[in-house]
Design a protein that fits this description.
alpha+beta; 16% helix; magnesium; 7 strands; DNA damage; DNA repair; Nucleoside Triphosphate Pyrophosphohydrolase; 136 residues; EC 3.6.1.55; mutator protein; 2 helices; single chain
Length: 136
C-alpha cells in the first residue's frame, strides 16, 4: 500500500491594516469567486518572487484600493492552515498614505470604526489581527 502526501505551498501574503485620521480601518469584501469569497478582509495580496513585503504591500494596495502608502510598521505575522490552502500573513499598520480608497477590482470597500470590526465576517486567519487591533 502506498501513501501519497500532497504538499501545498504556503502562500505569502502582505496585509495592510490601514487606519485613517478618524481611526477607522479600511476593509474590503472578497469577491465571491475567490478563496474565502464574500468575507471581509484587510487589503493586500501575494508577495511575488523578488519583492519585499513592503514592496508587495505598496503594489497590492495601489492595484486593489488605489492608495499610495508612504510609511508602514510591522504589526504581526500569522501562519494559518485552511483545509484547502496554507497562508503566511505579514501584517503591517498603514497610517501614512495618499489617495481615496475605492475597490479597483469591483470589490466593496468601507471604513469602519475599530469597535465595529467584530460585526464583520472575516476569514479565520484574520481573527488574531482583529484581537491585536482592539488591544491597541
Amino acid at each position: 500500500m502506498s501513501v501519497s502526501i500532497a504538499t501545498t505551498k504556503r502562500v505569502h501574503v502582505a496585509v495592510g491594516v490601514i487606519m485613517n485620521a478618524d481611526e477607522q480601518i479600511l476593509l474590503a469584501k472578497r469577491l465571491t469567486h475567490l478563496h474565502q469569497g464574500g468575507k471581509w478582509e484587510f487589503p493586500g495580496g501575494k508577495v511575488e518572487k523578488g519583492e519585499s513585503v513592503t514592496q508587495a504591500l505598496a503594489r497590492e494596495l495601489k492595484e486593489e484600493v488605489d492608495l499610495t502608502i508612504t510609511d508602514t510598521s510591522s504589526l504581526m505575522s500569522i501562519s494559518h492552515d485552511y483545509p484547502d490552502k496554507q497562508v503566511l500573513l505579514d501584517i503591517h499598520w498603514v497610517t501614512c498614505f495618499t489617495g481615496e480608497a475605492h475597490g479597483l477590482e469591483g470589490q466593496e470597500v468601507k471604513w469602519v470604526a475599530k469597535s465595529d470590526l467584530q460585526n464583520y465576517d472575516f476569514p479565520e486567519a484574520n481573527k488574531p489581527i482583529i484581537d491585536k487591533i482592539l488591544e491597541s
